[in-house]
Amino acid sequence: MVEVLKSSFEDLFPIIETCIRESSFVAFDTEFTGLTADSSNTETLFDDGPARYAKKRRDVQQFIMVQIGLSAFIEIPHENRYRVHTFNFYVYPGSFGSVNVKFLCQASALEFLCRHNFDFNKFIYDGISYLNEEQEKVLCNEIEELSVATDAECDYDEITVQEISSKISEWLATAKNEDKLVLEKPPSVSDYVLHSQLRQRFPAIWTISVDRLHVQCAKITEEKKSIILKEHEMENERVLNSMLGFTRVFRLLVKHRKPIVGHNCFMDLMLMYDKFYRPLPVKYSQFKEDISRLFPFVFDTKSMSASMRKSYKETGLFENTTLSRLYAAFQRRFDLYQPAIIHGQEGSKYREAEALHEAGYDAFMTGSVFLRIAHLKAVVHLSFAEAQPLPFSHLFSIISPDMGRLNLIRASVNDINLLGSDSKSLRPEWLLVRSRKRSQPLKPMQLAGLFSAFGSVDIRPRSRQEALLAVGNWGCVRDILSSLSKHPHITVRKYNMWKHSPVVRSLLW
After folding, report:
1. 406 alpha carbon, distance to own chain's centre
2. Is the pTM of the predicted complex or chain greater than 0.90?
3. SS3 sequence, 404-451?
């Protein structure tokens, strides 16, 4: 594993680019500052794809990623082996000019990161910056116009800048070309703001920082200024590249069109879209269209493994589809001609010990599980005589039906389809709960306590006397209807939209 920080990013970027370019596929994982920004965004069994997207969009707009893991799996030809190069990036939204991101932190999410040895100092002090296209455009305009200071900064620092400007004005009255003036640099004004303001106010000078305490002004000719401005453009490019940071890696993934693999990665992809591409669109269909254009070959090992659970019920291989349990299950299993996975020279950390919930390690586990699932699907129907090592191109053709399907947890549908229409719900129909007496309104907390004993359920109040109930499985429906048929305070029946929906009834009436 290679740890990538702001201080090492530029040196490592060419290596990262080479690994992505040479890879057969890239697995990814992210860690973030929270999951649910508001109780109204809580995931429920009522959610279909558009409803879940709308909820997570509100969350993603307020949380940020703190760590990103990428594992590039490179096939070694004719050896039935893959060499994996894993990078663990700390990312932090740098501030510059008007680009100054506000974000939420959820206490439980930070506690989770603490339990898994997340280094908050690296995150804040040495995290790699990033921009989406909208932020990049704003920053480019500000750099070009030399107006990086925000209004708040200008108001706050105007008196200090004006004092320095007065001293420069007095000096310029008698100064000749190439004369220099050294002044104390005010600690309350950033270097970029100070230079921008002074160069705007005095076109005949150029300023540089002598050290962290002093700024030097030099009176120069137009010819010399044009030369300096060309050099300054290169400095502006360096500033922009520094602020783009991890976005440049994101664009490499888009450019090289490699299959990308996540585990339960719907929110991860939404975060990547919002932080590195564009603000998330309102329309769910637009998001699906855009993300499948950016990444045409997306796989979700959570969705893949869930779809195989029934076929492998006797083996228990997919009994638990959490990432760490899947990885452990495949480590105990041997399949004929299964490909070997070896770490690159920098991967000693993950060879020696696991690092669960470190984004790099989770990305490595995701890629490993993906490769084993693909191999298992390819050889499951082959006889011993037919079995042989299989290149990734063959594995890819076998798993292509899984492409674009992203798992949804606790929803009315099992997954969403980036490449087409979502599947229809396989969940039971909703149930309608009514109070037997108008004088006894339903109490959601009491209903939750009553129905939770039957399994996975969610409640949506419709009025003081009515509530809808979404249920996880058919057995749960059967048990509820039979056990509560004679309940003294409520009635429970199957919900029928034509009979029970006020909107439909009003239209029919």
Report:
1. 14
2. no
3. CEEECCCCCCCEEECCCCCCCCCCCCCEEEEECCCCCCCCHHHHHHHH
Amino acid in position 279:
P
CA atoms of 108 and 481, how far apart (whole Å): 37
What's CA 463's distance to the chain center, in Å?
Answer: 37
Phi–psi pair at 117, nearest 5 degrees: 65, 35
Which pair of tokens denotes residue 460? 């949506």
Those residues with Cβ within 8 angstroms of residue 351's Cβ, 6 or more apart along the chain or in another chain: 343
Q: How far apart are CA 321 and CA 44, in angstroms?
A: 20
**Which residues, other chains included, contact 179 with Cβ-Cβ below 8 Å and sequence gap of 6+?**
171, 218, 219
> What are the structure tokens assigned to 21, written together?
């370019």
Question: What tens digit of pLDDT does each residue of 433-445 get?
Answer: 999 998 899 998 9
Residue pointed to by tokens 């037997």: 436
Residues 206, 225: contact at Cβ < 8 Å?
yes
Quote the mean pLDDT of the chain.
91
Backbone angle region of 278, left / alpha / beta, with phi > 0 → left and psi within -120 to 50 → alpha: beta
Q: Is the CB of residue 205 less than 8 Å from the CB of residue 237? A: no
* 202: nearest Cα among 251, 169, 160: 169
